[in-house]
Amino acid sequence: MQNKTLTPISQLINESLKSVMLPNTEFKPNAMFYSTIGINKHRFAKIMRNEVEPTRIEIKALSDYFKINPKDLF
């Protein structure tokens, strides 16, 4: 099994999800999620893989949705 290095954003999101999800469940974004945060699935995936840097608006949307301090995402 390959070890994945988590980016700060994906790590923070995963940590915030642990507190609200049942054990052994996986976060699966759906159309409502993408609509709520205003980021399409392809861009969100690139942000999570650290291939692109999120804009300030995207950081705000992600921090609001996942209840993460926006300063932690920089």
What's the end-to-end separation, in Å?
30 Å
Order of helices and strands: HHHH
Please indicate the percent range of residues in DSSP E strands (runs of 2 or more).
Answer: under 5%
Main sheet overview: none
Number of helices: 4
Q: Say how many strands there are.
A: 0
Label the structural class.
mainly alpha
User: Which blocks of ≥5 consecutive residues have pLDDT under 50?
Assistant: none
Portion of residues within helices: 40-55%
Written overview of the protein:
By secondary structure, the chain is mainly α. The chain has a domain at 29-74. 50% of the residues lie in helices and 0% in strands. It is built from four helices and no strands. It has helices at 8-18, 31-37, 41-48, 56-66. The chain starts with 7 loop residues before the first helix and ends in an 8-residue tail after the last helix. The mean pLDDT is 85.
Topology:
Blueprint: H1 8-18, H2 31-37, H3 41-48, H4 56-66
What does this entry show, briefly?
The protein has about 70 residues and is an all-alpha fold. The chain contains four helices and no strands.
Keywords:
74 residues, mainly alpha, 0% strand
